[in-house]
Amino acid sequence: MVFEVAAAQIKPNKASYDKNLARVGTLFGELHLGSPRPNVIALPETALTGYFLEGGVRDVARSAQTVFEDLLSVYRANVPKDADVDVVVGFYELADGRYFNSAMYATLSGVASIVEPRICHVHHKYFLPTYGVFDEKRFVSRGRTIDAFDTRFGRSAMLVCEDVWHSVAPTIAALKGAQVIYVLSASPGREFTGDEVGNLSRWKRLLPNVADEHGVFVVYSGLVGFEGGKGFTGSSCVVDPWGVVRVEAPVTDECAVQAEIDLDDVAIARAASPMLADLEASLPDIVLELERVSRGPCRS
Amino acid sequence: MWTVYRAPRTSSCSSASLAINAPLAIDWLVEFLRDELIRRRGFTRAVVGISGGVDSSLTAYLCAKALGPENVFGIRMPYRTSSPDSLRHAQMVVDDLGIHCDTVDISDAVDGYLANEPDADGRRRGNVMARTRMIVLFDQSEKRNALPIGTGNKTERLFGYFTWHADDSPPLNPLGDLFKTQVWALSREIGVPDEIVDKPASADLVVGQTDEGDFGITYERADRILYYLLRGYGRERLLRIGFPADEVGLVTKRVAGTHWKRHLPTSAMLSSTSINDFYLRPVDY
Question: For the whole model, what pTM was predicted?
Answer without folding.
Answer: 0.94
